[in-house]
Every structure is written in C-alpha cells, then in structure tokens.
Design goal:
Elements lengths: L1 H29 L7 E9 L2 E9 L12 E7 L5 H14 L4 H12 L10 E7 L2 E6 L2 E6 L2 H12 L6 H7 L4
Antiparallel strand pairs: 1-2, 2-3, 3-4, 4-5, 5-6
Helix pairs in contact: 2-3
C-alpha cells in the first residue's frame, strides 16, 4: 500500500510541476514584450504639463519600419477620460489621412477596449504579424485582429508624417 500512495503522490507532484511549467510558458508567450529592450523613449508635454512618457520596444532593440514585432508602452502622467483619448486618436488619424468611415469603425472598436486613465497607469500596445494586443499594466484588455488598424495606431507616433516628429525621432532612437 505504501508504494501505491508514494507513486500517487509522485504523480500528483509531477502533474503539479507540469502545470506550473505550462502556465509559465503561456504567460511568457503572451507577453514577450516585457523582455524586449527599448529602442527609445519620449515624453509628450502640452505647455507646462506632462501628458505621458512613452517607450518603443522591439525584440532586437532596433527599429525597422517593416518590423512586425513592436511594443509601445505609454505611462500616463495625468488623468484622462476615455472620450478624450478617443478624440485625440481621431485627430491624429485624420492628420494621417485615414478616411472618416474607417476612423469611426476603429474608434468604436477602441471605445470597447480602453478605460479612463489615471496618473501612473500604463497602456501597452503590442503589434505582431497577426494584429495587435492592448494591455493595461500586465493585463490583456483587448485584441485587434486588423493589421491595418494596428499599424495605423502605431503610426500616430511612428509615421514620418506624424504630428509628433520629435517624439518619433526619440522613440525610434534617432536622437
């Protein structure tokens, strides 16, 4: 009887270890951006106010415009309502020449994902070959399976036509 209990205990321990290992692999697979080195960082100000600090990360630590793996980390330095975030995003997409119908569809999608932000909150957007994923801190809050929408969101900061050329240069490491 002792051997059976010992064997059962060993199986339980092995199953527990395998479960922990699989959980660790899944967590790391879902958020590899956390280990990516920064390409560059920038701060958005408006007059005397700091709005947010941002950082661009890639697996290599280098920026290439054709890269599929990018993470934009935004740490807010003030409280901002979701509606204000959506309005600012719409203004930037309009600046980039995205048609109104497409902008409205995309904004509706973002409205279902984004919360209001508080000072100190981090919004992370990770783009890969399949689209993009939004994280609030380390928690996934939304998926964008639309690659065009995902890249258009990043182009707010990374397009050569951005309204923020200084921020772009800092983020892509061209300071």
């Amino acid at each position: 009887m002792q051997q059976t209990e010992s064997g059962g205990c060993m199986k339980t321990v092995m199953l527990l270890l395998i479960s922990i290992l699989l959980l660790a692999v899944n967590v790391n697979a879902a958020t590899p951006w956390q280990s990516w080195p920064a390409v560059g960082d920038a701060r958005l100000t408006w007059g005397p106010w700091v709005i947010y600090d941002s950082e661009l990360r890639t697996p290599s630590g280098d920026y290439r415009p054709d890269s599929e793996d990018l993470a934009l980390v935004i740490k807010y330095q003030r409280n901002i309502d979701k509606e204000d975030l959506l309005e600012a995003t719409d203004e930037q997409w309009k600046h980039l020449g995205i048609p109104k119908v497409k902008r409205q569809q995309w904004l509706n999608r973002l409205a279902g994902i984004w919360p209001d932000v508080q000072k100190g909150d981090r919004l992370i957007f990770v783009v890969n070959r399949d689209g993009g994923i939004f994280y609030w801190g380390n928690q996934q809050i939304g998926v964008l399976p639309d690659k065009e929408m995902s890249m258009s969101f990043l182009y707010i900061w990374l397009s050569p036509d951005t309204s923020y050329p200084d921020i772009r240069r800092q983020l892509i490491g061209k300071v």
